[in-house]
Amino acid sequence: MILLPWRLWARPAGLEVSGNITQDTIWNKSQSPYLVTASLQVMDNVTLTIQAGVIVKFADNSGLSVANNAQLLALGTANEPVVFTSIKDDSQGGDNNGDGGVTVPTPGRVMSGAKLGSNWYAGCASIVRAAVAAWRQGRSEVFVPLAHPPGEAQVDFGQAEVVIAGDPVTASYFVMTLPHSDAFFVRAYPKECTETF
Questions:
Q1: Which of 15, 65, 125, 128 is the right S-S partner for 114, CB 3.0 to 4.6 Å?
Q2: In this predicted model, what pLDDT tens digit does every residue of 33-51 receive, in sequence order?
Q3: Residue 55 to residue 96: CA distance in whole angstroms
């Protein structure tokens, strides 16, 4: 009988993901690590939420892209960060490629680029961070400054519950504001009718 020395490595569990995420999805720690085995895209109007403590590992030639109107929420904390790393990184989530530690991750392999909307940004982590900041700035809310020239008025009508002689009564009211000077005029009436206003 001949005995050959060999090792048998158990491949730790992990959830393989690829393709399109077409509905709001939550990745939780109990199913971690998530193994991105091919291209994975978060589609328009969909949110991928990655909870604290989740490990996401990327195989060679795989990637994650987020469409223009989609969201990626990584909810890591100081004690339980969300970790993005290579499938070759056995220090995070175990030996998910089942090679017994033969392969090791190459520095910069995971953060070699990022796709934001339809734009691809290549480079190191600092370049990707700068690209994310620029992308977020372009997507920020827009506020229109309010300008109220002298003589402009705003008018509104409504109803309010008032107490007259101890009895609750519904009264109609008229409000006129002058935004330039912040002056206002309010008048209550017993009923709404053309003659009142």
A1: 128
A2: 998 888 888 898 999 998 9
A3: 11
